[in-house]
Amino acid sequence: MASLNARAMLVSLVILLVLGGLWEALNQPPPASKQLTEYELMMGAADQQARVPPPSKVLAHAWKELSNPFYDAGPNDKGIGIQLAYSLYRVITGFVAAALVAIPLGFVIGMSPLMHRALNPFIQVLRPISPLAWMPLALFVIRDSEQSAIFVIFICSIWPMLINTAFGVANVRSDWVNVARTHELSQLQTAFQVILPAAAPTILTGMRISIGIAWLVIVAAEMLVGGTGIGYYVWNEWNNLDLNSVIFSILMIGIIGMLLDMALGTVAKLVEYEE
Amino acid sequence: MSKHFVRVEGLSKVYPSKQKDTVVFEDVNIGIDKGEFVCIIGHSGCGKSTILNVLAGLDEPTLGVVTMDEKEVSGPSLDRGVVFQNYSLLPWLNTLENVNFGVKARFRDWNSKQVAEHSSKFLAMVGLSEALTKKPSELSGGMRQRVSIARAFATSPKLLLLDEPFGALDALTRGVIQDELIKIWGETQQTVFMITHDVDEAILLADRILLMSNGPNARVAESVVIDIPRPRNRANIIEDPHYYKIRNHLVNFLINRSSDELPSADGEGGVTLSVNPARQEIFKKTNESIKAIAAN
Fold first, then answer.
1. A78/A13: higher pLDDT
2. Band of the pLDDT at B264, cuts 50, 70, 90?
3. Which of A9, A73, B79, B83 lies at a 20 to 30 A Cα distance from B205?
4. Beta-carbon neighbour count of residue B236 at 10 Å?
5. Which residues contact B11 (CB under 8 A, 6 or more apart)?
6. How confident is the model at residue B266 (pLDDT cuts 50, 70, 90)?
7. CA distance A90 to A105
């Protein structure tokens, strides 16, 4: 009997082939009844109904795009690599800025019951706001679409990190805090030597949730602000009626999102501990 | 009483509530001499752990003071090491790092080599030289408690507080670590205050056993001097002619008398008892005079 991993992979492959096969089979153009002129072909005369491109066409297109991902032929024609790089830059900048605010603030909230109660109403009101609702205000105040997109990422990634850090810090086992106290550790030493490592797995969980949300939001934000980025690219290709590119970029969004999560998952493994 | 190294005077703990305040224990007086090993036994709820936490500086009494070395205890200090029942090791550090944690806090100007050497020495004393790089989760309960004991001894506190350190261990492991504790205590001559539920363990380890009456309103009812000669170990101790006398006395107290109303008396506890017949006579007389004072 093959290992569980190997068998799971086999099942995944079967599902992929079945779904891909259905998709391919259901989206073939009907056979032409007569030979079409080149002009008629170009106007889509053979097929009055628009179809989702089958996977074979998407894959061929993906191959073409991925073999030259960084070309730049003007504002409306850039390679997928460049678009993704813009989006990643915005997500990472906004995310890092959010982490720099959320983790220290989460420490304060977690360690001080007073601050927890004082700040909780603000968090509860601000947290449910859709990050895109901030966009008009951000555009007005910041007066820069690029930075407004980064701000939207910042505001949407801050909450899971803030709440998880506060929760992790507040729930560090009192035994470990007592160990720090009986060893006469200062507040700062306690924070770094006991509370941070104890709360690190919870904090990392918050960071993983945040980066996931940030990656979801960047697509929508870039559809609004336009110019560059994978979100803009999807919308632009829709306007071009190039569904091959739309499907291809949807797949790329999924793959990059998975890689971002895996990267933080690797970091989370480093700080994990077993009680 | 004033010459004791550690002095607990008039200690009370009250948990206030709207209906009726709960007095866990009241007017507890304890004196511990330097190098003495004192065990405290009592039923659950008599406030033993609270007394230990007050000694550690982790909890505050409602009334009374604790002094050590002529200084009042307020807040935790490296001078008072604590071993908790649940080991309290930091799970993200390995065995050596856990002991280093304590040593670094104690000897702040040492370099990392000195710290590691010192820690290794104490880990060797508890037989853990082979497990330096293991995380607590990879160790058995007995091994974890050994690490915790090594950490406490390595910081050489003036007073070592043990809160039921063997409570969660099986009987065989407990016996082995008890022997190790006697050995390491013999080498360092620490002053130790230990909570236990185990009468045999208390007789094996202690110079003196304090018996607490039941809570609420618990008190230190008796102070029993264990004059079985040292070195002791589990095998030879049961052959001592006084062993069963002491044991019966303790068990009798816990079963029959711990819930009785006990006369309050000045000084430490109500009654002091020794099984040595000559001493017993003296104590009998003092007890009678104490009772006479209390009656007046």
1. A13
2. very low
3. B79
4. 12
5. B25, B27, B28, B29, B30, B51, B54, B61, B63, B64, B65, B66
6. very low
7. 22
What's the confidence (pLDDT) of residue B270?
A: 45
pLDDT at position B276, please? Answer: 54
* CB-based contact, B82 to chain A, within 8 Å: yes
Q: Which residues of A133-159 are buried (b: 16+ CB within 10 A; e: fewer)?
A: ebbeebbeeeeebbbbbbbbbbbbbbb
ipTM reported for the complex, 2 dp: 0.81
Token representation of residue B292: 């006479």
Q: Contact B214/B44 with Cβ under 8 angstroms?
A: no
Q: For chain B, what is the mean pLDDT?
A: 85
User: All domains of chain B, ordered by start, with CATH?
Assistant: 6-79+158-295 (3.40.50.300), 93-156 (no CATH)
Does A132 touch chain B if contact means CB atoms closer than 8 Å?
A: no
Q: What is the distance between the alpha carbons of residues B257 and B251, in angstroms, rounded to a whole number?
A: 9
Q: Is B204 left (phi over 0), alpha (psi -120 to 50) or beta?
A: alpha
- Assigned token pair, A3: 């290992």
Task: Please report the domains of chain A, with CATH numbers, ordered by start residue.
Answer: 55-65+78-271 (1.10.3720.10)
User: Looking at chain A, which residue has its C-alpha nearest residue B81?
Assistant: A182
Mean pLDDT of B90-117: 95
Does the beta carbon of A177 lie under 8 angstroms from any beta carbon of chain B? no
For residue A199, give the nearest of B90, B170, B114 by alpha carbon: B90
